[in-house]
Amino acid sequence: MTQPSAHEIVQDYHRAWTSGNIDRAMTLVADDIVCRAPGEDLTGKDAYREFIGGFAPTLTGLAEIADFADGERVGLFYYPQTAATATAPAAECFTIRDGKIAENVLIFDRLSFGPPVDA
Amino acid sequence: MTQPSAHEIVQDYHRAWTSGNIDRAMTLVADDIVCRAPGEDLTGKDAYREFIGGFAPTLTGLAEIADFADGERVGLFYYPQTAATATAPAAECFTIRDGKIAENVLIFDRLSFGPPVDA
Question: Which of A14, A51, A90, B3 has the fewest CB atoms within 10 Å around its CB?
Answer without folding.
Answer: B3
